[in-house]
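> call design_seq(struct)
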């Protein structure tokens, strides 16, 4: 008997529970309409929120970099992979974030696991929101500290945990800025107040808010006017910036510490030059074009209002992420399939990405959707139900 027979039986179990995952093939750039597995559909599942991955200035910068530096980094940043384009990118990130310095990792996932694991060690405690992203959860698992999970967005619960934390050496509170599967914004001002009262470090993950919230797209700290009160501003360049790479922005000493200690920084290859240059150009466009942010959020309002007026149960989100809660994993998968038949791609999100019984369609809009795209999308939802 083959030694991998048990893999098939586990996959069969996932299938029966409606939890099996499979890949679809996208045959065009991630704009409002894409060709998916050979068919044109309206895309409602992309994180290319501002449409920057196809912006002419971004593409031009990437082409220029690939011609000048080639396709790959050739090593980890501490050995041979620290292309000079990193300095330009990190300077831009620190500037938008109002921070002294920034450090770019090869992905947001690596930034989270690398940073959390070394900021909380033995004898320390991490307070983590119940709906934080998997990369934060994995960072907590890699840390030698204790993790305590507080109820989603519940600062009263957080305070009760902080009040009992005197036996720990250091405290770290970590939260998504905008929750990726729910679209709501973390209560960061209250979190900062508690952190100051109890002497805790605060880390915010701006994956879904960088480029989207705040006057210059800086994210949740800028949105709430909390400059100087959040020690670790983490984020990713793979969503609104349209490229790839994670970052941590903060003090110079934080950046030096992470460069020396974070294994997710040290033991992986640097980003390709074209990605670095594309990220920098995209940040420039993002900063100088606030209309993209306005357009994104007005597009979200258009689709949200159209769906709510038809009785669809959306979670109350103020952002570009509009979750339609369906309950069981089977129902979410089936509804996503029917929608696809009507030319709409809104991915089903199921456990373990979201809690049991809250499977959903994670609808996300982009600045590049036209009003007609969104009207057609709403009509598709109505026809599919
Ligand atoms: C909240 C959050 N943090 C971190 C990440 C990881 O970022 P990346 O995709 O750049 O690895 C994601 C991406 O899915 C995310 O949603």
């Amino acid at each position: 008997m083959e030694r991998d027979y048990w893999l098939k039986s586990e996959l069969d179990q996932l299938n029966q529970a409606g939890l099996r995952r499979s890949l679809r093939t996208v045959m065009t750039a991630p704009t409002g309409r894409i060709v998916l597995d050979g068919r044109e559909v309206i895309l409602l599942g992309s994180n290319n929120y501002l449409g920057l991955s196809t912006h002419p200035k971004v593409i031009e910068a990437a082409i220029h970099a690939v011609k000048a530096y080639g396709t790959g980094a050739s090593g980890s940043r501490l050995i041979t992979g620290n292309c000079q384009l990193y300095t330009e990118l990190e300077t831009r990130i620190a500037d938008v974030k109002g921070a002294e310095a920034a450090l770019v990792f090869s992905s947001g996932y690596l930034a989270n696991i690398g940073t959390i694991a070394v900021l909380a060690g033995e004898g320390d405690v991490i307070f983590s929101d119940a709906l934080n992203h998997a990369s934060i959860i994995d960072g907590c698992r890699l840390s030698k500290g204790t993790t305590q999970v507080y109820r989603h967005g519940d600062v009263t619960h957080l305070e009760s945990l902080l009040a009992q934390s005197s036996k720990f050496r250091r405290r770290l509170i970590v939260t998504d800025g905008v929750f990726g599967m729910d679209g709501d914004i973390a209560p960061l001002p209250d979190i900062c107040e508690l952190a100051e009262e109890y002497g805790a470090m605060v880390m915010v993950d701006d994956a879904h808010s960088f480029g989207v919230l705040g006057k210059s797209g800086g994210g949740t700290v800028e949105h709430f006017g909390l400059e100087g009160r959040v020690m670790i501003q983490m984020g990713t360049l793979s969503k609104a910036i349209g490229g790839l790479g994670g970052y941590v922005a903060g003090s110079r000493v934080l950046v030096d510490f992470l460069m020396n200690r974070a294994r997710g920084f040290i033991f992986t290859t640097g980003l390709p030059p074209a990605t670095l240059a594309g990220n920098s150009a995209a940040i420039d466009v993002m900063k100088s074009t606030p209309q993209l942010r306005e357009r994104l959020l007005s597009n979200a309002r258009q689709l949200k209002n159209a769906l709510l007026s038809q009785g669809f149960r959306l979670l109350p989100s103020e952002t570009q992420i509009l979750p339609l809660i369906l309950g069981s994993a089977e129902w979410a998968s089936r509804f996503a399939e029917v929608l696809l038949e009507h030319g709409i791609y809104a991915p089903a999100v199921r456990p373990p990405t979201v809690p049991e019984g809250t499977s959903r369609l994670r609808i996300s809009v982009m600045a590049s959707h036209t009003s007609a795209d969104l009207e057609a999308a709403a009509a598709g939802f109505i026809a599919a139900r």
